[in-house]
Amino acid sequence: MNKKTSSAIAFTSGDYVVYPAHGVGKVSDISKQKIAGSELELIVVNFAKDKMTLRIPMAKAENAGLRKISEASTMNDALSVLKGKAKVKKIMWSRRAQEYENKINSGNPVAIAEVVRDLYRNENLAEQSYSERQIYEQALDRLANEVAVCDNISSEEATKKLLSILAK
Fewest 10 Å CB contacts: which of 3, 82, 94, 142? Predict the structure, then answer.
């Protein structure tokens, strides 16, 4: 019995998608390729900002965390998280940094918004360490890219929108 597994989510060329480890990309093609003697259906995702192309087997797309851009309700939840008060745990930075990285790589916009909120520093507050700043910028960039696609605006406009919410 030949069992063909396919992703429950249908992707088409031109769709914007989120790959947890890399952020927002655009499906450029869905093609079949013969690899190691078996034919695989691959989703080809371009990440223009990183100048990277990723080929994900259709059968593994869901397990890899590939998903469509979030619905407006999910983005609204993420934006409302930004309005909340920062929750900084009193544990070692290395442990917190690991938790933040895991949240960013989860691809969940609400979890990414928590990282942005927790690491946001107003201009007049104390300086951030280099690693704090790196994680903050990565999270802000990921969230801004998804907001940009969701709201049909540029990444720069999305970043300004997020920063204005944080500044309140």
Answer: 3
